[in-house]
Design a protein that fits this description.
There is one protein chain. This protein is mainly α. It has two domains: 14-170, Vanadium-containing Chloroperoxidase, domain 2, CATH 1.10.606.20; 215-442, Vanadium-containing Chloroperoxidase, domain 2 (Orthogonal Bundle). The chain has 13 helices and two strands, in the order αααααααααααββαα. It has helices at 33-49, 56-72, 105-120, 126-143, 149-170, 242-255, 259-267, 277-292, 297-325, 330-337, 357-373, 405-418, 424-442; strands at 379-381, 400-402. The chain has a two-stranded antiparallel sheet with strand order 1-2. Helix 7 crosses helix 12.
Length: 448
């Protein structure tokens, strides 16, 4: 199986087609300011999908800074909202906005998004950079049409200044250009009972786990820096022991997987070679919510900032604990102690098991969205609509409809259990910790 962190096979998600703009388009778009934020969110998803050597860890970080830039580029134009300056780890200053000078906030956001996406995804292709520039020009041309040149220039300069300040701050977090060191070949793997081993049935050919130092990165929210570590079940291969039962549950579930469970398992795979990654899936949910509620520009910006930072912090904490505990996956334990012929429905990702990254980031996303829209929210997830059938697993990609954001988060976690790559404890702890992490983002002083 191809290495998902090194190869990018062409596959276009249909809902992203709409923002592939050309400077030569004969028909001018007629965007509202509300739509500008979601256009840029779609562009961020596209670039994430089509940039080589990407990973869920690096993508989560990208969405954190892209979402924050979207918000900070316009927040000074909305007196009821607060900047995150002084509230996040190390973000002590940002370029000043002078009240006496007029700015167009859409132009500022537009310039800022173009700048930060190209800076964070420096490694993306020239073709992708042209797409970014084309979207920036389309929006710029529409929203600057009736403005004087000085206002236009000030607005663009301000947006780019915010983006560059946030980018310079990002360079000190520990994850700058993390795609250059996805796997640390010098890392010495802990050797102890129950420790992670490179699996034979895997998503990557690497025998070294992905981003072993990611957990040392700076979190966005100060409160997420020192969360209490979760508890693991002590290693014990005795049949009937709590540890044994975790893997036995995975094994027994695999024996009676239903077709809907198989559909969930492949839907939430979100491998970087065929999708915009798990954090991209969460960022996409923010767009679904914003569009359904016809959110204002500033409300959408705040939502993307919360979502991006919550998911980014979730990955930092998850990776800290993954490498602290360095726990094995079912593909190691089950063939040795339960059934030597067993193989999981879904291949193992190249990193330790506890806790589940899918679960922790999905819970963080759901908690952000529930804080804004409440627990009852019906929506349809079309992220993989019209994707080709998975012939190897004899399963189609079936769009999902949920009655709440938490229902989607729970299915995300469950999908890893159905796939045979996470134990129930991995998922339970991931969900619990994701809620805590997102709560610390929601609790920042967003409004006056």
């Amino acid at each position: 199986m191809a290495n998902p962190f090194l190869n990018k096979t062409p596959y276009l998600l249909l809902f992203l087609i709409g923002f592939s703009f050309s400077c030569q388009n004969a028909t001018k778009p007629n965007l509202t300011d509300r739509q500008v934020a979601t256009k840029w969110a779609n562009m961020a998803l596209y670039i994430t999908r089509y940039t080589p050597s990407n990973s869920p860890t690096f993508a989560s970080r990208a969405f954190g800074y892209i979402g924050l830039t979207l918000y900070e580029s316009i927040v000074e134009g909305y007196p009821e909202y607060n900047s995150m300056k002084g509230q996040l780890n190390g973000l002590d200053s940002l370029p000043a906005f002078r009240d006496q000078e007029s700015l167009d906030w859409v132009l500022a956001l537009n310039a800022g998004q173009s700048e930060i996406i190209k800076k964070i995804y420096l490694q993306t292709s020239d073709e992708n950079k042209i797409k970014i520039d084309s979207l920036e020009k389309v929006i710029h041309d529409q929203f600057s049409e009736n403005l004087d040149n000085e206002t236009v220039t000030r607005s663009v300069s301000y947006g780019k200044a915010i983006a560059n300040a946030i980018f310079e701050w990002s360079k000190t977090d520990g994850g700058h250009r993390g795609y250059l060191q996805n796997f640390d070949k010098s890392m010495v793997h802990p050797e102890r009972p129950g420790s992670w081993k490179p699996p034979l049935f895997a998503q990557s050919f690497s025998h070294h786990p992905l981003h072993p130092h990611w957990g040392k990165n700076r979190t966005f929210a100060p409160a997420n820096t020192s969360l209490e570590e979760p508890k693991v079940i002590p290693y014990d291969t005795t049949p009937g022991s709590p540890y044994y039962k975790q893997f036995e549950a995975v094994y027994l579930k695999d024996l009676d997987l239903t077709q809907p469970e198989k559909e969930a398992a492949i839907w939430w795979g979100d491998d970087p070679d065929v999708s915009f990654t798990p954090p991209g899936h969460s960022y996409y949910f923010a767009t679904i919510a914003a569009e359904k509620n016809n959110e204002s520009l500033i409300a959408s910006a705040a939502l993307y900032a919360k979502m991006g930072m919550a998911v980014a912090d979730a990955f930092i904490k998850c990776w800290k604990w993954k490498y602290q505990f360095f726990t094995e996956r079912p593909n190691t334990f089950i063939p040795k102690y339960i059934d030597e012929e067993w193989e999981s429905f879904w291949p193992d990702p190249p990193f330790p098991s506890f806790p589940s990254g899918h679960a922790i980031q999905a819970a963080a996303a759901a908690t952000v969205l529930e804080d804004t829209y409440g627990k009852d929210f019906v929506f349809t997830d079309k992220a993989h609509e019209n994707r080709e059938r998975d012939e190897f697993r004899d399963t189609d990609f079936v769009i999902r409809t949920f009655n709440s954001f938490w229902e989607a988060a729970q299915e995300t976690a469950d999908s890893r259990f159905y796939g045979g790559i996470h134990t129930p404890l991995d998922n339970e702890v991931g969900l619990d910790e994701g809620v805590k992490i997102a709560h610390n983002i929601n609790s920042l002083n967003w409004k006056k």
